[in-house]
Amino acid sequence: MSDVVTAFAPASIGNMAVGFDMLGLALTDVGDRVLACRTAGTDVTVEEVRGLDGEKHPYLSTNANENTASIAAQALLTDHGGSFGVGLKVHKGVPLQSGMGSSAASAVAAVVAVNALLENPLPVEALLPYALEGEKYASGGLHADNVAPSLLGGLILCPQVLLPEVVRLPVPGGISAVLLHPDLQVNTAHARRRLAKSYSMQLWLEQQGLLAGFIAACASSDIALIKKTLRDVVIEPQRAGAVPCFADVTEAARRSGALGCSLSGSGPSMFALCAENDARNIASAMEHACRAHGIGCQSWVSPMTAPGARIED
Predict the structure, then answer these.
(1) Do 105 and 186 lie in a common domain?
(2) CATH no. for residue 293?
(3) Average pLDDT in the 254-270 region?
């Protein structure tokens, strides 16, 4: 057993347009790191939280009852530890309130790191309920569309009715995800509270059909069907107005060859799926459309098979 472990957990795309609270995709090259070290006692503490610039984070709390990383880690340690405590150092690589699963990445990295300190570590799939405890604190609900892909990688189907079971979905080869993050923030919990509480049967059936079609398209590598079904007729219309550059960015992505483009989670980030060879051009087009509104941004290109959380040296 090690006394000090660092884990990395990737950012993620929540909802994937068609699967509100049910579909998520892991990203590469962007995520959170959590260092966990054994301490005396049996409690989890947060020693520091550092931001994207490497400096002390100006907003995130080091109170163990108010940080997604420590809440998740404490849940795991309470059930499977008992002989030691843990001190955490959280290094944020995912912007806050970005629609990129920031709180989920911290919770996942924490449980993966603490699990590696245990005498009998759990299988990675068994860590999902503990990571969800942290995410539940941050977002105010039990949904795994960011936590599950961050933990397990790839494209994950994770409706609440199946939890803690999730399904790793097959994905077509040669398809990439482009993620654009504008320099804006959207509070996930607030965005959820503003959603309508009821919908017509016609709208519900349309969205269910798009979800079923998208899953079938991924399983059969039917690119034309992905393009037909990758859209959101329920949640996106309610949230798009909070992102001033949304219409122009999504139009730029489609005009450049994207199969579809929508909000990542509650936004403000936006994602597109596209042919691997078109990804860089589409990312550039999305960035240009965003900056035309006077909004700074950055983008990432990721395969749909990105790995989940891992232990680092």
Answers:
(1) no
(2) 3.30.70.890
(3) 96
Asked whether 172 and 221 are in contact (CB, 8 A), the reply is yes
**Which residues does 207 contact at the CB level (< 8 Å), separation at least 6?**
18, 20, 232, 233, 234
Nearest Cα neighbor of 271 from 9, 3, 6, 14 is: 14
Which residues in 287-297 are b (16+ Cβ under 10 Å) and which e? bebbeeeebeb
Is-cis flag, bond preceding 268, omega within 30?
yes
Estimate the crossing angle of helix 128-139 against helix 102-117, to 10 degrees. Answer: 150
- Give dist(CA 161, CA 150) in Å, integer: 20
Domain that residue 220 falls in: 175-303
Q: Which residues pair with 283 in a beta bridge?
A: none
Q: Is the dihedral of CA 252, 262, 166, 310 positive or negative?
A: positive
- Beta-sheet strand order (sheet of 175-182): 260-263, 270-275, 175-182, 297-303
Q: For the chain, give the longest Cα–Cα distance.
A: 58
* Chain segment 50-89, per-residue pLDDT in tens: 988 888 888 888 899 999 999 999 999 999 987 899 999 9
State mean pLDDT over 22-27. Answer: 97
Whether the model pTM is above 0.90: yes
The answer to whether the Cα torsion of 280, 281, 285, 288 is positive or negative is positive
My answer on whether 216 and 99 are in the same domain is no
State the pairing for strand pair 44-50/85-91: parallel
Structurally, how many domains does the chain consist of? 2
Looking at the fold, whether 155 and 194 belong to one and the same domain comes out as no
What CATH number did the domain enclosing 60 receive?
3.30.230.10
Together in a domain, 161 and 183: no
Adjacent-strand bridge partners of 273: 177, 260
